[in-house]
Amino acid sequence: MLLRKRVVAGLFALALSTPLMHAQFSGQSPRDNFRDTSILRPPAGSKVAIIVFEDLGCPACAKAHPYEQEVQKSTGATLVRYDFPLEGHIWTFDGAVAARYIQDKINPKLADQFRSDVFASQMQISNREDLHAYTDKWLKAHGQNPPFVMDPGGKLAAEVKADYDLGRRLNVEYTPTIVVVTKDHYQVISGTASLNFDPGNLQRATEAAVAQTKSAPAHAAAAKKTSAH
């Protein structure tokens, strides 16, 4: 499943009795500077999620993007993307707003394609004017009429800002920050000063997390049966 998160803490379980444990599913997970890890949870109905904080103008995010999609498809984990537009990237906030417009007003899958295409076209976009021209051309190429005003009430911008605030709450320091999570554990794939994105690490960690969640009920049942004797 591919899931776009647009609201902050309310979409995760807030009444958590124990903190999330920093653990490794596969390989070595680096020390992080995360603060409120209670937000690192799979969404309802999912046991394993790949959580990504990304900036549309970040070259490292563009590099990681297709691998995230591949791992999501091969493992069945939920892919949760958050917009984290860096202040130094002058067009990426507007790019995230454009993606939200396509997602909310047209089609979520088309919005995913827009994000992929923007990542692939980063070298063509230097400022807001470039981004707006690119978006208009892209919409027309996909049979859509560009709106005169994309976000007249500021709702889409507020959604992007909510994602950014969630990243600040977690203490995201680098993009992309990628974390594989279950309801009890998480492993950082990238997002620390000492760790660059490694596609193999993402694949291994996600596969291991999926395997652990599949085996957990059997272990729990065996323990219960043993204690009953």
Automatic annotation (TrEMBL):
Record's signal peptide: 1-23
Keywords associated with the record: Signal
Ranges of residues in domain Thioredoxin-like fold: 46-180
InterPro entries in the record: Thioredoxin-like_fold, Thioredoxin-like_sf
Pfam families on file: Thioredoxin_4
Protein name in UniProt: Thioredoxin-like fold domain-containing protein
Species of provenance: Granulicella tundricola (strain ATCC BAA-1859 / DSM 23138 / MP5ACTX9)
Source species taxonomy: Bacteria, Pseudomonadati, Acidobacteriota, Terriglobia, Terriglobales
